[in-house]
Amino acid sequence: MVMITPVDENDKDVFTLESLVGATLLKDGKGNAVSTGDAFKSSNASLVGLYFSASWCPPCQRFTPVLTEFYNVAKASKSGLEIVFITSDRNSEEFEEYYGKMPWLAIPQIQGSAEIKQKLSNALAVTGIPAIAILDAKTGEFILGGDARDDVMQAGGNAEQVSATIQKWKDAERHPISEAPQLMDSGAGARSPLSKFLSFMAKNPMIVFGLMYFYQWMQRKMIEAGYDEDKITTPPVVDVTPEDTEF
User: Fold this and answer.
1) What is the per-residue burial (b if ≥16 Cβ within 10 Å, else e) of 204-237?
2) CB 142, CB 181: distance < 8 Å
3) The CATH number fitting domain 17-190, selected from 3.40.630.10, 3.40.30.10, 3.20.20.150, 3.40.50.1000
4) Do strands 24-26 and 33-35 pair parallel, antiparallel, or not at all (unpaired)?
5) pLDDT tens, position by position, 163-189
6) Which helix (H) or strand (E) segment is 53 a member of?
7) 74: closest CA among 155, 179, 187?
8) Which residues contact 55 (CB under 8 A, 6 or more apart)?
9) d(CA 95, CA 100)
10) The model's pTM
11) For the chain, which residues make up each domain, given as ranges?
């Protein structure tokens, strides 16, 4: 597992943005780059949202336009919010097309970017997308995870609600990055127990086959015991559309 290295060895929970997202970021979909320090200095950001997303993810396609409205209103009011896109796109063409529609910063697809994404995913326990984590831009401390996605969906592009939401984030308690995995899994951004169960079953198909075999065995035994075959019900098929997409 790739780990994030703290800035100060005497304080394991102090990070700079460079140590989290790398020294260089893209500032637009045209490939123009900027140093991470300059990007956040010019925007005077006090909050940073790390946005994990991909063009092939249907829930991401629904959430990104809402986040764009939220961000544009926040930037217009100089609220101190910046967002960094962390892609899970499968190639540079997909990334460029998707990021070209976004108004915020992004980690470029260059050598080492996959390692940055991996260490952030590990540190924040991100297992599905879309996911957004709100951090303190000055210290790198964790503020909010799944609940931030709820907040964005509720506020949308409403200026009053956007302002109130960002102020709530600014006033919220800060937590060490080491506590992020427990705090990230909350709100709509969290994976539901059903989603986690289905993911587990998908990764362990032999359990599914075993349950199917057990059901068929029980069905035969019930018929042999004299039960009416027509009254033995078949388990219902449940159609579940998850609100996030697993990596």
Assistant:
1) eeeeeeeeeeeeeeeeeeeeeeeeeeeeeeeeee
2) no
3) 3.40.30.10
4) antiparallel
5) 999 999 999 999 988 888 877 765 444
6) strand 47-53
7) 155
8) 61, 89, 94, 95, 97, 98
9) 8
10) 0.73
11) 17-190, 195-225
